[in-house]
Amino acid sequence: MNHTRQNTLPNKCKNQCRPVGSEVLPQGIIAKTSNLEMRPLWGPVAENINSKPSGNLLAIAVGIKQKEIVNQIVEKFLANNFVVMLFHYDDVVDEWHDFGWSNRVIHVSAMNQTKWWFAKRFLHPDVIAEYDYVFLWDEDIGVEDFHPARYLSIIKDEGLEISQPALDPAKSEVHHLITVRRRNTKVHRRFYKLRGSGRCDDHSTAPPCIGWVEMMAPVFSRTAWRCACLDIGDRAKNVGVVDSEYIVHFGLPTLGVSNGNKLSYKGTQYSSRRNNFSDSDAAKPSGLHGLDNRNEVRRQSFIEMQIFKKRWNNAVEEDKCWADPYQ
């Protein structure tokens, strides 16, 4: 009997799937996920446990020039029990400490990096697995007419895995008409263009006619963030634009305008009376020796997209078992 038991135990243990490097540890000691909740340095454990942990995350790439706009966004989301993470692309962090909420949010700083660079490195799915939704927003968003709690309720009811708030067309810089707010509707999932080239109608099955949102203010469910290409389900149903909760996209220039080693803009001021930005010199760097490298930024983005397409084509060619679900 002892001999049989000794042989059975090793066979049973061989079937256990363990993370590489954890073989010498008891299985229950390894936590598969984490979160971004900050921990106190002292005090009784019971007093430091949040009875209602935050269930959603807001992450924004920010520069000090948009400080007041970001303040309005952060205050609204913190009031709705979000965890907030700021990605500082201009390497300026200390100047945010005059806000009372500064010590409650997470600051990550790296010079001249994009929102998606930060997200890829600091929002790993295992780290944010405890959050139901991730709001990965730009900084130039007006939220006067946006309510996070109502928005969450809508996307849950509608089953949207990837979404965005619609844009107020009267005040926003609009690049894609599918993002424009429609009155008297709660959500829309498709866009119609019945004349000219690039038509979109009831028979359209591909972006940007259907199943598409813009990169400026996307909202991901936990599942969609882990693997957006495979887990979002039917894009005709699970991707959409929320009309009843809408935002303003100011369309301010950010990365690419530099003055020495610091990003800088001249003449950018918000006018509540006109409900837009007075930015006559926004495209010009301040100082005599400023540089506007935004064309170079766009060129680099194009180059990296071509690299990605080549990687994709090579991966498809090498993976004989893969089938395109949207072919």
Instruction: State the distance separating the first and last CA atoms.
Output: 58 Å
Shape, per Cα inertia axes:
globular
Any idea what the radius of gyration is? 23 Å
Helix- and strand-based class?
Answer: alpha/beta
Largest sheet: 9 strands, mixed
Q: Percent of residues in helical segments?
A: 25-40%
Low-pLDDT runs of 5+ residues are 260-289
Write the layout of secondary structure elements.
Blueprint: H1 2-14, H2 45-48, E1 56-62, H3 67-78, E2 82-88, E3 106-109, H4 115-122, E4 133-137, E5 141-142, H5 148-158, E6 162-167, E7 187-188, E8 219-221, H6 222-226, H7 228-231, H8 235-238, E9 239-249, E10 257-259, E11 262-263, E12 269-271, E13 276-278, E14 291-292, H9 294-318
Parallel strand pairs: 1-2, 1-4, 2-3, 6-9
Antiparallel strand pairs: 4-8, 5-9, 6-8, 7-9, 10-11, 10-14, 12-13
Characterise the protein shown here.
The protein is of the alpha/beta class and 327 residues long. Among the domains are: 53-139, Rossmann fold, CATH 3.40.50; 141-216 and 229-253, no CATH class. It has nine helices and 14 strands. Strands 1, 2, 3, 4, 5, 6, 7, 8 and 9 form a nine-stranded mixed sheet that branches. The protein has a three-stranded antiparallel sheet with strand order 11-10-14, with no helix packed on it. The protein is globular, with a radius of gyration of 23 Å. Mean pLDDT is 81; it is low at 260-289. Residues 271-292 are annotated as: Disordered.
